[in-house]
Design brief:
With about 500 residues, this protein is mostly helical. It is built from 16 helices and no strands. The protein is about 80% helix and about 0% strand. It starts with a helix and ends in a 12-residue tail after the last helix.
């Protein structure tokens, strides 16, 4: 899990560190154009038909069964599909680039650079998706140390190249070329590191039965991924339509803080999914159910403790970061993070379970349920409580959808509900939250604001979580292991 976290955090940290440098070197307008291209890229990456989100499960399944030829067909097939998708986007961008450029409020002196960036969006998309394919191959085969090396190495080379080559005279196409180089380096490095798990034999592409099975799975993953993307976009659109424009910036700060804290426990999901899929491939549904209960018994109290502590402290931490004048952003982050915490605790291991057993449709149902509740509540709650009402609708929707997911998963074999939380959970969590909040209030009282004080504000949180772990870990490790069907441990 540590190497998985390192691999996933490397791109985020790289962007965090390079953003001030790029703004200073490119200027705010040119950096805005580059950010717009990255938004287009992120959107198209989500809309890949669910292929990227499905690869980890199928690679893990083939790996557990020793089917290196099946893995090879999946690698070739996914890369071929990504190449076709990138070519389609390239053609569309060539046709629509003038229209897009004229429709956006971009300074005339940057029209040429924006047009050129749009024409290379397709190749960038292909390489980004290909790098995701290589990442999935390593994740599925438990190669997290190699993954951390590939991800960290490609990000380091990219950061050094940006610092060395990007200046006031450098164009945005050069930055796009460096970004493409990072994706290419991650793709080649990942495929080389995972080569021993791949065997290329005829046919090179997945067979019709394999395509049908993968296609049904990927379609459901696409629907789930789209709803997660939609939930964030709905909030921004409603704020833009019903509230003054300055509230969009206030919302963006709180949303960024909540999403960042939510992502930390999710770094554990790839190893859990890999293990769950291997167990299912070897022991079938009874083995996967047993493994779920073993993992959930530890995941639930750990995730809930983390969620309670970070929710309690995030409002203060946001003020340390951006100043007390944006205290409303802190409130937004707290409301959102409360919903995210329930979602992560209840759905994290369950999501791995339904994906591992090949039934992602259950995840799709809960995602759409959360979206429907969110949409139904957004406008009335916004009219009542403004921007806080917007995020409250999202939090309620996520909570309702997560509870629905718990019920739905009974149909997938999870009939027995998880036991109670550990006896020491409440005092351990209360102690951790108290230490974290008091520590951050002390830092806020010093009047320091910015990225460095924000990092300092993380120390009381770590101290609080460490104190909670001292109380919880012995009880978690001593909990009885559930017994498999048939009586074998």
């Amino acid at each position: 899990m540590g190497f998985s976290a390192l691999a996933q955090a490397a791109p985020l940290l790289t962007n965090l560190l390079l953003t001030p440098y790029l703004i200073a070197r490119l200027g705010l307008d040119r950096f805005g154009v580059w950010s717009l291209i990255l938004i287009f890229l992120a959107t198209l990456t989500v809309l890949d038909g669910g292929v990227g989100a499905s690869l980890a499960r199928f690679h893990a399944y083939h790996g557990a069964r020793g089917e290196r030829d099946g893995t090879g067909r999946l690698v070739i097939g996914s890369l071929t599909l990504f190449l076709c998708f990138g070519a389609l986007v390239t053609v569309l961008c060539l046709l629509l680039a003038p229209t897009i450029t004229s429709a956006l409020d971009v300074p005339a002196r940057l029209h040429d650079e924006e047009h050129r960036l749009l024409t290379v969006l397709g190749p960038l998309l292909t390489l980004a998706l290909a790098s995701n394919s290589a990442v999935a191959l390593l994740q599925a085969n438990g190669r997290f140390r190699a993954l951390a090396g590939v991800s960290g190495g490609s990000c380091l080379v990219y950061a050094l190249a940006v610092i060395a080559l990007i200046d006031q005279s450098a164009g945005l196409p050069l930055l796009a070329a460096l970004t493409a180089g990072r994706y290419l380096l991650a793709t080649v490095g990942g495929l080389c590191a995972g080569a021993r798990h791949v065997k290329l034999t005829r046919p090179l592409l997945p067979t019709p039965p394999e395509r049908r099975e993968f296609g049904r799975y990927a379609l459901r993953m696409q629907l789930s991924g789209f709803t997660m993307f939609l939930n964030g976009e709905i909030d921004a659109l409603v704020i833009a339509a019903l509230l003054p424009v300055r509230y969009i910036g206030i919302f963006a700060v709180g949303y960024q803080a909540a999403m960042g804290l939510r992502s930390l426990p999710l770094y554990a999901i790839p190893p859990v999914l890999t293990r769950m899929t291997h167990v299912y491939a070897g022991d079938g549904l009874p083995g996967a159910v047993h493994e779920f209960h073993v993992l959930q018994a530890r995941w639930l109290p750990t995730a809930l403790t983390y969620g309670v502590v970070t929710t309690a402290v995030v409002a203060v931490a946001v003020q340390v970061w951006v100043g007390p004048e944006l205290a409303l952003s802190g409130a937004i982050a707290a409301v959102l993070l409360a919903g995210y915490s329930v979602q992560v605790a209840l759905t994290g291991v369950r999501t791995c379970f339904v994906r591992a057993i090949g039934k992602p449709g259950y995840e799709t149902r809960y995602s759409w349920a959360a979206t429907v509740v969110n949409i139904a509540l957004t406008v009335p709650l916004t009219l009542l409580w403004g921007v806080v009402g917007v995020v409250l609708a999202t939090a309620v929707g996520l909570t309702a959808g997560s509870l629905y997911f718990v019920v739905v998963c009974r149909r997938a074999g999870l009939h027995r509900m998880q036991g109670r939380l550990p006896r020491r959970w409440l005092p351990a969590t209360a102690l951790a939250a108290t230490l974290a909040v008091l520590g951050d209030l002390l830092i806020l009282g010093l009047g320091w604001h910015g990225a460095v004080p924000l990092l300092l504000a993380g120390l009381p949180v770590l101290v609080g979580l460490a104190a909670a772990s001292v109380l919880l870990v012995p009880e978690l490790t001593d909990r009885p292991v559930p017994v498999k069907h048939g009586g074998s441990p």
